[in-house]
């Protein structure tokens, strides 16, 4: 039995997770396993009603499950960043989900790239450090200082920044931080994944020619872990990598990115394979509680209209089952998605005529047939 916390969240998250659950249940029935799905009320409605984001009770609830299956967060009634920081980022840091995993593969004929390029990239994004640490602030006046303490995850440090200007000015800053321990554990995960997948190298992305301190340590540690694992590492500057993903994505396999560059490049990876409607992700804590979600947001403009594409959420369920040690179920789900695409059993954004529920029904039926 697999105990999974299900948090549909906001907007179309509720619609696509319902279809993802439908497909997961079809696969579980075919393989004679039990899924215990325990639902959680997270998102804008609860926040607007009670002021609660991710509470200690929520965290303890998740700790009693093997994984979290998540929909989407975001609501125009709530200021940007409130829900994202208070729920998503807090969840990632609380459970130390330090790897963000996002596949990008060619879904013909939906990839917009010219020619029949066949690519199968696994983006691995460090999920807890870099410029998304929250180490920032604003300085005002001729003389000013800012002090912040970071005591979470791998960090227990205090930063002090002071300024002296010849005139009244306002400065904003954001500090990128990476730790040796954080890079080591992430690099180990990348090389272990490459070895498991039979890949000969890991492509590590950075901007070490400009951010020499931050990404200098990144490269030093990746060199060390490459030697320890016996897997090669190649380096790409993020701007060159963005061009290469459009020009020749087939040359890449496992791609390792620091947090901010990974955030950007994985959206490019989603677009070259067919858009956010097919983009799924996992926030991984090896040996702990991981969370799986579609990459797309809550899309409040189409919520409740049956227009949402459920494939990304369904593929997030596939990744979840892979991580729970059932890649056979993952393969069953992915095969059903491929067959649905081949038969045009898809939503309007992919050129089909089905609504969200119908698309989920079609893929669930294909799972049952393959089982």
Sequence-ordered SSE layout with sheet pairings:
Blueprint: E1 2-9, H1 13-30, E2 35-39, H2 44-50, H3 56-63, E3 67-72, H4 82-94, E4 99-105, E5 120-126, E6 136-140, E7 143-152, E8 155-164, E9 170-174, H5 180-196, E10 201-206, H6 212-229, E11 232-237, H7 238-247, E12 254-257, H8 259-273, E13 280-284, E14 290-294, H9 311-323, H10 327-342, H11 356-370
Parallel strand pairs: 1-2, 1-3, 3-14, 5-12, 10-11, 10-12
Antiparallel strand pairs: 4-5, 4-13, 6-9, 7-8, 13-14
**Element pattern in H and E:** EHEHHEHEEEEEEHEHEHEHEEHHH
Low-confidence stretches: none
Given the structure, what is the number of helices? 11
Q: What integer value in Å does the Rg equal?
A: 21 Å
Average pLDDT confidence is 92
Summarize the amount of helix as a percent range.
Answer: 40-55%
- CATH topology call of the largest domain: Isopropylmalate Dehydrogenase
Share of β-strand residues: 15-25%
CATH architecture grouping of the largest domain: 3-Layer(aba) Sandwich
Q: CATH H level of the largest domain: which superfamily?
A: Isopropylmalate Dehydrogenase
How would a textbook summarize the main sheet? 10 strands, mixed
Straight-line distance between termini = 19 Å
Basic shape: globular
